[in-house]
Amino acid sequence: MTVLKPMRVLAISFAVIGAISGCAIQTTVQPIPPNQPIAEICILENPKVIISDFLPVIQEGIQRNGLRSKVFREIPNTCTYVLEYVAFQKWDFTPFMSEANIRLYHAQEIVGTANYKLPSGIFGGGGLNPAKWNSTKEKLDPLLDELFKNYSLAKVR
Questions:
Q1: For the chain, which domains are there?
Q2: CA distances from 116 to 24, 29, 41, 80 (A)
Q3: Averaged in consecutive runs of 10 residues, what is the pLDDT profile of the chain (157 residues)?
């Protein structure tokens, strides 16, 4: 019996460590280089994204960083900077954003990216990390600020 008790404790410890270790949120940002003279960003609306506040949060982040943006269903030829995005949500008692990928193009070449991803797995993805229920704004604002950190409206004028 004394051997069983330590084995049970060991098994429970591994289960807890496994559940917690799968909770890390992955974020990556490739900031826009400082030499980009951005006057306006054309956002390609993605109707497949069902997170209702996703596009408004992106627009607010762009504006907060001194840039202008317009949303289009089809990008006109006059747009030199185009932002595309995808986002996914999962459910664990309530829906939450589980992944987002934002790409900024200049002349069809990527000049900046921002990515957010919860780990897959138990409890609807994101494991036991309570940050998975943070708002879209709380998740995206730091990424958008990092994406545009090298940009200054003064460079355009």
A1: 4-155 (3.30.160)
A2: 11, 9, 21, 25
A3: 52 44 75 88 95 93 93 94 90 73 95 86 55 76 93 48
